[in-house]
Amino acid sequence: MASAPNSIKDVAKLEELLSEPTRGAIQAIGALDGDIVVLGVGGKMGPTLARMAKRACELAGVKRRVIGVARFSDSALQRRLQTWGVETVRCDLLGQRSIDKLSDAANVVFMAGMKFGTTGQEPLTWAINSFLAGLVADRYRNSRIAVFSTGNVYGLSPISSGGSREEDALSPSGEYAMSCLGRERTFQYFSSAHNTRMTILRLNYASELRYGVLLDIALQVHAGRAVRLSMGYLNAIWQADASAMSLESLGCGTSPPNVINITGPEILSVRAVAEEFGKRLNRPVSFEGEEAHDALLSNAQKSYQLFGRPRVSAQQMMDWIAEWVSRNGTTLAKPTHFEERAGHF
What is the pTM of this model? Predict the structure, then answer.
């Protein structure tokens, strides 16, 4: 990103920024061999990540197919991906025969998962978050695989610790986090069994203007609702930076998998973030509850050593989000429920 714009005027400009590859991502894609398959491309982050992969190929001067795989209940998304040069495949990933029919690819980004609505649908949650990992890991045993996971697998950590590190003990709370740990363990097993090079990317939280923890807080302030302080601290990273790091990670996969936290460098106070949005949006701010001494936090120093620091700061994200919210910019209308401490989503 040559220079950050003062504002982002519309969704087209937003998606252009969200798909802008870093120099590291361009170099990594240029150094890889083979095509790239993005499994679960239909989620919040998948479309612009796939577009970034395609742009990185073009900027690196290499010919690579980028193939996005999803159910594509939204046919407009499928068409949009195709206009960006991303090939699309409709597929029910839970079907063994469907998985077997997918194109071979030297590089796989695994993004499929279920979080919201997991309470009451626990069997489906485990099928998508854990069982599917085995199908994919076996099908793509000869590929490099970047696996999206979540910082929720660590559980709550003291604010004073600076966030959980990759070597810390895991203590997932709730079936979502437990099933995500099941995903990790399954990929770890197949990585060792087949010597498959993998990275496991523990992400929290990717943010943009239509979705994310920062948007949640901004919308609460703008609407005059009390901001809950039950989860009083958080990490956030600009979604494009997280996407670039995940693509770059394809070049540093290992067996057993290389586990990498991906998030922003700041530990953000929910109270302070809400007050900042109050100033930007010219709204009074009220709160509910008190901050606990712990939160879901990750330390991402390892990722900065590998890929460099994020291009976009938390302050820049808040500037963009406040301006977006003030003019009623479109959102995905999908709250993150980051305040949830017991892991019930």
Answer: 0.95
